[in-house]
Prior knowledge:
Blueprint: E1 2-9, E2 15-24, E3 27-32, H1 38-43, E4 47-49, E5 53-57, E6 59-64, H2 80-92, H3 97-113, E7 116-123, H4 126-136, E8 139-144, H5 158-169, H6 173-176, E9 178-180, E10 182-184, H7 192-205, E11 209-213, H8 217-226, H9 232-238, E12 246-250, H10 256-264, E13 268-271, H11 273-278, H12 286-292, E14 295-298, H13 311-326, H14 334-341, H15 343-348, E15 365-369, H16 381-387, E16 394-399, E17 402-406, H17 415-434
Helix pairs in contact: 3-4, 3-17, 13-14, 14-16
Amino acid sequence: MLFANIALVDDSFQYREGQWVGVRDGVIAYVGDEAPESETAAAFGEVYDGTDRLLMPAFYNAHSHAPMTLLRGYAENLPLQAWLNDAVFPFEAKITPEDCYWATMLACAEMARFGVVSFSDMYYHMEMGARAVLEAGMKANLSDTLIAFGGEGLADLPLYEQNEMLLAKWHGAGQGRVLIDCNIHAEYTTNPGAIRDVVAYAKAHGLRIQVHVSETKLEHEECRQRRGGMTPVAYLDSLGVFDVPCTAAHCVWVDGSDIETLVEKGVFVAANPASNMKLGSGFAPYGAMLDAGVRLCLGTDGMASNNSHDLMQDMYLLALAGKGAALDPAAVTPQQAIRAATREGALSQGRADCGLVKQGMRADLCVLDVSGPSWAPMTNPLVNLVYSGHGSDVALTMCDGEVVYRDGAWPTIDVARTKAEVSARTRRIQAELAD
């Protein structure tokens, strides 16, 4: 495809008009302010008219629980611990592998609709997640969840064999579109021996780690009581978690010392502003994190604590929450918010060749229709992108050069069947819980 005479967000996160971008063999092969020579242009195939369109890097959802589309609208208006223990865990105990397949497929359809091409997922039955992701033509970093309330080590848990299977069958599948990570659910759901085992396993296999950190004040303070005054960040660091590439989700209640550790260890922090507000967990210090040099990325969390995979909505909330929490209208710039939703998300997944509109990068792109009234006037297009744009403005989503959503159509997903399957499966689980 050749995007012709189109405005774009460039690799420095600046707005540029009248650009030409050529995609071939899954890669951005040309970027210029003039059309490529006619023979070269012909090799790109379809010419996409850039009138009233904005081309930008696709979005990368750095923290999600994709199968939780099954729980959308379920367990509402509850604080996190009651939400988790009294509603979510009992529901999840009824979820089958096939449920996870259809629920992940629905998440893929929703994310593609909103310009997301890749997501980092923590859940169960990840072989089904891998199957859905590959069929949808998308990307994901998938990790089965470590929960170890007793003295179990990794080798004592079914998770060990599951990880072995995932690595053997799915790691690197789809020419690298599926990657397998390790994950630690949280400090309060695991024991130190199991955490050390996961760290050793990740190091031995060259894997990344995903973990929930300081999501609530209760979690943060109870960890200090349990762990001799250590915060969750300090505790996890003492066990070596941050000695491998790591994405720490939430980090709402981190303190100054925690932030220093996150910067020193190069930890990616996956912000989840919608989920944190919906569950009443608080407002993370995004401005302080960015000022200190934390690698901030962006996630939706699961659909029982956000209800939407529209990452543009979370980008808007990231900017607003950062300003509101810091009492500083300059706390989060539009460029910082956009970078968190794109390039930093890609890097958090170990995808160094993704997340920028730049020659030689993977063609993970989305096109926004900027003809609507909310986009006028274009006084500052990047401000419009963060504060006026919506996921519904996405007109095209491309993953590795292949279109996965365009103008109301999903070429890789039977959306009608997927919606029906997930709705039926949610009803079945609710009926089982009622018995």
